[in-house]
Give the backbone structure.
Amino acid sequence: MSIRVLEIPETGLAIEGIAEFPHPFQDTAWVLEAVSLFVEKDKDEVCVRGHLRSRVPQTCSRCLQQFPLTLTAQVNTRFCPGPRAVDDAVELRPDDLEVDFYSNGLLDLNRLIQTETELGLPMKPLCQGDCRGLCPVCGGNRNVTSCTCEVRLPDPRLAALKELAERLSTRATPRGGPGSGQDRRPSARTSTR
């Protein structure tokens, strides 16, 4: 759904329900379940506030099972007209990181819904909080079946590397802790005087 900025009424524009958004996402498996937005204009800036709810298929990062994830996102975005020419160098101020842009006088709400939903996706999706994951030996899903595999012992050829790593980690952290004066390593800064 695109809105002409010049046609936004002075009192603002309320958008309720998904009827106005037949295909809001690029991925057709994503589903917009609910949306409530209020669009208001202040000169050439546009503020969009509200919330949306979407259902997005995800793959669990532990057990690799697919599951539907329901996301609820709060929307509070300010839009400004985009730069006139692509070649213009524009220096961003700290406030500008909270701003999105519209171009040709059109505000693309589908893009806003896509972006807000993407920002709400977890980095490591889990099918459930206590997901037990896959067995490292047989690869079975521990949520579905009890695994009777024995845990493999580490490869004995790597024992020397493990010992070296342990020695280096204990040497890097002094027993007295930081500031106790027991760390005798040379400083990273060296003086040339």
About this structure: Residues 179-184, 186-193 have pLDDT under 50 and may be disordered. The radius of gyration is 27 Å. The CA atoms of residues 67 and 167 lie 43 Å apart. Strands lie at 2-4, 13-16, 31-42, 45-59, 66-81, 99-102, 106-108.
